[in-house]
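Run folding on both entries below.
>entry_1
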Amino acid sequence: MSYEITYTKKGDYYIPNLTLAKNKYSDYKLSKYGRMRARYLKEYKKAEYTILLIDGKLDEHLYNTDIECKKRYDLLMKKFAEKENITEELKANNQMEWVQKMNNIKNSVEEIIFKELIFV
């Protein structure tokens, strides 16, 4: 196995042309949860971020976090809506109350997701 490193000249310096290997998660478009997790790791968990990046596992980690957050969001929204007795009938009869209750639930659910999956 032979590796050849190429260089690009920038001013007086030669900089190696390094790229990360592509994997099956590289082309996945992250939602806000995956992007938030990436930003959190980059700003507050630099060592963990660097290790994941060097090992080539960062994309997979962000993908898994993103998918898990979406599943958890859907599940919690459904459960909270049932618990608060928010129905399609309420939506048809009183849209403003329905929107208010759904926004409250959404904020609660996202707070749970942030604490359990994103900012850990």
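>entry_2
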Amino acid sequence: MISKILIANRGEIALRVIRACREMGIQSVAVHSTADEDAMHVHLADESVCIGPPSAAQSYLSIPAIIAACEITGADAVHPGYGFLSENAKFADILNAHNICFIGPKADHIRLMGDKIAAKAKAIELGIPVVPGSDGEVKTSDDALELSRDMGFPVLVKAASGGGGRGMKIAHSEGELAEAFTTARSEAKAAFGDDAVYIEKYLEKPRHIEIQVACDSHGNAVHLGERDCSLQRRHQKVLEEAPSMVLDSAARAAIGKIVTDAMEGMQYLGVGTVEFLYEDGEFYFIEMNTRLQVEHPVTEMITGIDLVREQIRIANGERLSFSQDDLTLSGHAIECRINAENPRSFMPSPGVIQTYHPPGGLGVRMDSAVYAGYAIPPFYDSLIGKLIVHGTDRKDCLMRLYRALYECAIDGVETTLPLFDDLLQSEDFQKADYDIHWLENFLERDGRA
């Protein structure tokens, strides 16, 4: 049985895991760089260990440093959070070799789903619908042109490894394809050390719909409904909501069964998210994230299920605490990702927070690790908090979000809070009439970056 968990992460997700540990009576260990010695997760964990200098490569991404911290503290499990080492199969293998439990999927599944070409092939094998595209890596621009002509433009050239929008280029015509192909390969090589790319049909106005799953070692696989993550800037999610307003219960049940059947087929273990593009009533597989998602709180709000607790239970060899029949979706939830960035240029804004007042009240949750006087370091992702609200329906949820944004105060650094005020004034957003390109068009019309 797991008795002490080391959280190989920082910020709000580290704090989120620490809270779950404390509620479960499990000891927690925080690791931190020298830049994070005053971070909230360091203060609230039962123990803390400094694992290196500010550079993530020398601290949060240093596998030897994390193993050493486990040995020093006697931690028998590691929760990776999201980002950093959360989808690093080698890390999972090394932990297992040291008899330290990795709170996440099997290393083979992380490895499989980390290769976008292999993941797509596996999805086809498991009966998951996919976007029309190449069968595997496309190695030459001539092959790319032939495939694109067969599919019809526009097409999307995508890196086989990595994510976050890097190594992705759109070609609307034959004249644009050669440059898109070359640029995507170059970006993929620089970002992921792998220049392999593949090609898919580019969908014009899809939604981004993802299905949350949880699977234990006793053969139980369930889905917890969907999240709509269509509001994106440069392929980075900005706001998420659940459930999606474009799915009815029949569509939700149908795609949920396809996904859970697939998870059973591959004997998946842990929580994960299967992501789709959705257009004209059809789902198209994009990728699977073999970790906890940033946006997991909206699912927790509408299901009442603590996903971190379930991760730990699964890693302990326990059964899920619920079945598919137990699950009901209640109300509507929205999450706003608050970044320390200029709300117009989106340039990072590190510095000292002078005032911090999180909103509260019924149906309001603020997941953040900042506090008044906290100095946001310039070395890491600019996400400083997630405002999550829940209402009886979407209209109620929007009114609660409006109230919560009015209450929220963060001074001393620039944040993206004003962006959400603007979104609430948009008629399209109020009607949930948007797709994955909508936000960038909205920002461009408003003269923003």
